[in-house]
Amino acid sequence: xxxxxxxxxxxxxxxxxxxxxxxxxxxxxxxxxxxxxxxxxxxxxxxxxxxxxxxxxxxxxxxxxxxxxxxxxxxxxxxxxxxxxxxxxxxxxxxxxxxxxxxxxxxxxxxxxxxxxxxxxxxxxxxxxxxxxxxxxxxxxxxxxxxxxxxxxxxxxxxxxxxxxxxxxxxxxxxxxxxxxxxxxxxxxxxxxxxxxxxxxxxxxxxxxxxxxxxxxxxxxxxxxxxxxxxxxxxxxxxxxxxxxxxxxxxxxxxxxxxxxxxxxxxxxxxxxxxxxxxxxxxxxxxxxxxxxxxxxxxxxxxxxxxxxxxxxxxxxxxxxx
Amino acid sequence: xxxxxxxxxxxxxxxxxxxxxxxxxxxxxxxxxxxxxxxxxxxxxxxxxxxxxxxxxxxxxxxxxxxxxxxxxxxxxxxxxxxxxxxxxxxxxxxxxxxxxxxxxxxxxxxxxxxxxxxxxxxxxxxxxxxxxxxxxxxxxxxxxxxxxxxxxxxxxxxxxxxxxxxxxxxxxxxxxxxxxxxxxxxxxxxxxxxxxxxxxxxxxxxxxxxxxxxxxxxxxxxxxxxxxxxxxxxxxxxxxxxxxxxxxxxxxxxxxxxxxxxxxxxxxxxxxxxxxxxxxxxxxxxxxxxxx
Amino acid sequence: xxxxxxxxxxxxxxxxxxxxxxxxxxxxxxxxxxxxxxxxxxxxxxxxxxxxxxxxxxxxxxxxxxxxxxxxxxxxxxxxxxxxxxxxxxxxxxxxxxxxxxxxxxxxxxxxxxxxxxxxxxxxxxxxxxxxxxxxxxxxxxxxxxxxxxxxxxxxxxxxxxxxxxxxxxxxxxxxxxxxxxxxxxxxxxxxxxxxxxxxxxxxxxxxxxxxxxxxxxxxxxxxxxxxxxxxxxxxxxxxxxxxxxxxxxxxxxxxxxxxxxxxxxxxxxxxxxxxxxxxxxxxxxxxxxxxxxxxxxxxxxxxxxxxxxxxxxxxxxxxxxxxxxxxxxxxxxxxxxxxxxxxxxxxxxxxxxxxxxxxxxxxxxxxxxxxxxxxxxxxxxxxxxxxxxxxx
Lengths: 322, 293, 393
Hints:
The complex is a heterotrimer of chains A (322), B (293) and C (393).
Chain A: H1 8-30, H2 36-61, H3 69-86, H4 91-113, H5 118-137, E1 148-149, H6 157-175, H7 178-188, H8 190-195, H9 200-223, E2 228-229, H10 236-249, H11 254-270, H12 275-292, H13 302-311
Antiparallel strand pairs in A: 1-2
Helix pairs in contact in A: 2-6, 2-9, 2-10, 2-11, 3-4, 3-5, 3-9, 4-9, 6-9, 7-9, 10-11, 10-12
Chain B: H1 2-32, H2 39-55, H3 61-84, H4 92-114, E1 119-120, E2 130-133, E3 136-139, H5 140-162, H6 164-174, H7 176-181, H8 186-212, E4 214-215, H9 221-234, H10 239-259, H11 265-279
Helix pairs in contact in B: 1-5, 1-8, 1-9, 1-10, 2-3, 2-4, 2-8, 2-9, 3-8, 5-6, 5-8, 6-8, 9-10, 9-11, 10-11
Chain C: H1 2-25, E1 44-50, H2 57-76, E2 85-91, H3 96-108, E3 113-115, H4 120-133, E4 137-139, E5 160-162, H5 167-181, E6 186-192, H6 196-211, E7 215-222, H7 230-238, E8 243-245, H8 250-262, E9 269-271, H9 279-284, H10 286-289, E10 292-296, H11 305-318, H12 324-343, H13 348-356, E11 361-363, E12 366-370, E13 376-377, E14 381-386, E15 389-392
Parallel strand pairs in C: 1-2, 1-3, 3-4, 4-5, 6-7, 6-8, 8-9, 9-10
Antiparallel strand pairs in C: 10-14, 11-12, 12-13, 14-15
């Protein structure tokens, strides 16, 4: 591993890339080449990236199958809308509260359930996600099943871009830190990790809380673009949507999650006329990827991961996907 | 008091449906430790097969049910061969994700070909008779469904405890490698398990069709999840546990709607699941075996 | 050194994919010349943005079917202003965000007006895009009062119209009917709580019923896709109401009524236009439906030739009788064609102006005029089930 030194040159290069990307898209929006339709899909893309990357931290890197991600997104969406639309606070407060509320929910749910293993955990998180939805449907303050409408559009391209970059930077750096190694060790062999003195519960909960917080962020961004939030939007099928991206991209590959999120968003846009077919394709993705490449299409990918870490100035993570 | 007893009767017949679905869930889980997420959707397919055989072929209810059971048994075997068998030695999470995929696949293929429209079982397929006893109302459908659930459970229990195949099933569930060494074909046993489990789901599907009259492509999701909760409640892998769990779930849900609010019914069902998983993951009737590492 | 190379390649890959998808990828509709919109185009493009998958797919499916029959009829008769109507059918998957996405795509493809979506939530999702693009939206069945009017500012949403009544109209009508015609004083409400529609009906029914001296003895709710109501029905039975108001859709209500009668609840039951479907009789049975009433736009058994020809065309194509969604989808298209004809132009802004001036448009769901809040003023009929037949009251 010769690449531990993170040079300023590389860092500056990254910043230039990002600034160029940001400026280019902003320019295209300003001159009107990217009309509303493209902007909607760009927004969905950004939100899906945040969701996929954050769920990947839980499902991919920590190896804990969570099927309740939409629930955290719901909490973020409603928390932020309560702050902005009902109580007239600025959007940034809404975002912060959304992340805190989702993180808190992640903590409350994570502490008891993360003792469970594998598929039991999956079902328990699915149950919690549904409970969140049902409870939201029964709160009159947030409009019950009809939800809240009339939400101002505040998720602009700059906000979205910063949110996506922050999400990826935070999660990638987390994975490359000592926390990250502990988290991955939980996935690789929980018993061995425990024997090595790692408090596995602590790290599982940590990953769960961070993942939930970013799902909350995604929820806040979602709510402030699409005008209306309804609890029904965040049912377990939404969690499955996110799972499809993570599985496709590779369980434990952030690059993969990003690319899969983009791919799925584009696929969805292309299949607008044939939404039933879209779901059949999702189903086939899940089945075929699991049978032929249980790590996800791009998931073998020391390669992509290695290079990706390098770009972000991270350290090389040597882990073999199980 | 009368109202309470009526609620118990309502709960029993709802519970019988959960129990029928839960039986299949629990069998499959008992043998290969897979949460067959698609189980509820196999039930949906069964309901459709039953519907078409009654409405297109004009068959009577017994024929329709047999027809649905046979078709779904085959479907279950095929699903297992194609989707689950390649994953038998991979992680349980991979298998669960595949099962979720299979569930979506069945739902949306049905939706694609048969549209989202609900289909209506002809009322003549099973004429309704009501009995009123001391102010309590019970119908022949309630009795039919409860009795069938109990009979199916007894037959299953007999197969598993008394026949050679059942013995092989138990052996596979206990220790796959050892079972192979004893000359048991694991593949065959798993196929049989899926066939039986799916046939039971199909029976439940036809009964739901008869009971509620309307069926649609997404009808399997919620009962499937509830039945899973029932199976966990009773102790997953245990036939009588699934039965009791199903009845308990049915009664619990009816009481929640009757004495609190039907809108919290689903939340309560999942709450029960989480509580059971946290407090006694082996279920009400399961033995505590400790975690295997 | 090799590693560095990979680093760059990885970076490039991500960026290229991102950019490509942003700039090139996102779109179905690339035919997006603005000029193809309106008068210059060969055909008049009508967006049909419906729920074709997801939990309320059956509503969208039926409404789409009704709309397409109307378009077929119009085109066979020579189109509008000498041009054929070209339906652009899209699926919003019963999701509010997809409704917006679909509307944006359709606007991009040059539609002059949009039919759908069906529920109030999805219409609201679509609203901002329609307003920005200044393209009228005709909602077949979005009944929430706030759909056409911004609740906060009280301003009418210029480009949003509907052909159904608002929740308040139906709820009030049934309350009056129950009090005055059925002469009941104690009612229970057991409605769907999954959508604004049924909740709205319940709310206005309750207000009117209590204001006119009745009492509500029980208020309960169920969720869409529920099939098991006996727990709550048994509870309601214990409260001895003289009338039960069940706002919701036939998919649940039919099972609910059947279970109510099985439990020996014999009091009259009432509901709204969501009941309107041949499946009601098939599921609940003719006997159980006796003494039930619902507010509706029309009756499929109405001898009016326009209605009968629609019902026949629908039955021929879809092998079943149309429900209210189908009829409203049909009327939405007919109203649009009428507005285009009156405007003498397929320009969206002119269509909107013509829609606002609609007077006595003869739809199959009633003769309607559009009021200043973009709601149709039309007659509400009360229909009674009598041995499985629909009888207008």
